[in-house]
Every structure is written in structure tokens, then in C-alpha cells.
Design the sequence.
């Protein structure tokens, strides 16, 4: 899988080429995804996306749905490409995970607005709150969704600090889910690569 900085139909593999590539490289992509995953408390998992994770997601959708016509390929790119960070931000898929269905229903009702209370805090700088669900609203008056798409927009000074080795916290200050964690150095090194 070649990273080009822009996902277009021409930069994706054919279904045949991808199937061969996948057999060899799937463990590397899984390791990359795991490296970029941050567990916040017991129930929130933030999967920080990259060109690699999104390119893989698109290729997987095309493979599963056996899409090879340009219109279908463009639809998949349109759905997922906005999740690739573009130099001044981190973009993540936020998953609220409860195994018990009744507990999940109860907790999602308590966690309305949680996606807007997620933040990153670069050492020496103020909190940057998530810009959530820009594609569509994912909550109702009764509950929030179990999946949200969030973006953390960093200033040039913050980007420079991260690239220079500053620590970063991921946190949430929602009344029903107060939590924060220092992002591990390995994960942070990968995230720093998203910044210009």
C-alpha cells in the first residue's frame, strides 16, 4: 500500500492486487492500528486515523462489497477520506464500548454530548476540544451514539511542541465520564508524524 498524501481511485489497488497484498501485510496494518489506539477509562476507545488506516478501510470495503466500478470507488473515498489528518490535526474514530446491551443503553443515555467534551492537551498549552461528527449529528435527545468521528485542531505552536517531544494528554471532562491519560510515547511518535 503506497502512501501518496491523497487517496484517489488511481492510488488504490485493484481488488486482485489488494487481495495478494492483504495476505502479506494485514498484520502490519493491525499493529499500526493498535499503536494508534488509546483507551480512555474502561469504555472509550479512540482510534486515531492515518492515511494507512483509512486507505486500508477503503480497500477492505471495496473487497468485501466487490466494488470495482469508478462510481462505487469514489463513494467509498468520499465516505472515508475526510478522516485522514491533514497536517494540523488529529482525527479519530471514538468508540463507546459496553458489552452488556442494557448497560450500554443506560450509559449512552447518560453520555449525551460526551464527544464534545473530549480533549487533547499538549504539555504547556491549553486544552483542545474535539470537533465532533462534522458529517452528521450522531445523537438524539435520548442517547448519544456508540461511534463518533472527532477532530482535534492544533495550533502551529502546539504541532511544533509535539514534534519536539512534548507530552500529550487525552481526556474527557463530561460529568459522567471524567477521565484522562497520558498518550504513550510510541503512540505519540506515530501521531507526531501526522503533523506538519
Sequence:
Amino acid at each position: 500500500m503506497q502512501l501518496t498524501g491523497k487517496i484517489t481511485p488511481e492510488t488504490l489497488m485493484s481488488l486482485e492486487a489488494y487481495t495478494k497484498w492483504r495476505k502479506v501485510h494485514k498484520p502490519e496494518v493491525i499493529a499500526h492500528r493498535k499503536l494508534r489506539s488509546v483507551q480512555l477509562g474502561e469504555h472509550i476507545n479512540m482510534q486515531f486515523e492515518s492515511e494507512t488506516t483509512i486507505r486500508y478501510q477503503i480497500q477492505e470495503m471495496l473487497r468485501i462489497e466487490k466494488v470495482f466500478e469508478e462510481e462505487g470507488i469514489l463513494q467509498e473515498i468520499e465516505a472515508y477520506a475526510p478522516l485522514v489528518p491533514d497536517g494540523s490535526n488529529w482525527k479519530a474514530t471514538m468508540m463507546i464500548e459496553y458489552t452488556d446491551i442494557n448497560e450500554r443503553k443506560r450509559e449512552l443515555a447518560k453520555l449525551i454530548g460526551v464527544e464534545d467534551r473530549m480533549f487533547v492537551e499538549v504539555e504547556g498549552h491549553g486544552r483542545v476540544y474535539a470537533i465532533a461528527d462534522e458529517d452528521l449529528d450522531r445523537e438524539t435527545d435520548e442517547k448519544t451514539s456508540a461511534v463518533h468521528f472527532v477532530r482535534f485542531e492544533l495550533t502551529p505552536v502546539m504541532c511544533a511542541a509535539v514534534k519536539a517531544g512534548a507530552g500529550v494528554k487525552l481526556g474527557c471532562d463530561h460529568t459522567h465520564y471524567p477521565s484522562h491519560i497520558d498518550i504513550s510515547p510510541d503512540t505519540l511518535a506515530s501521531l507526531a508524524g501526522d503533523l506538519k
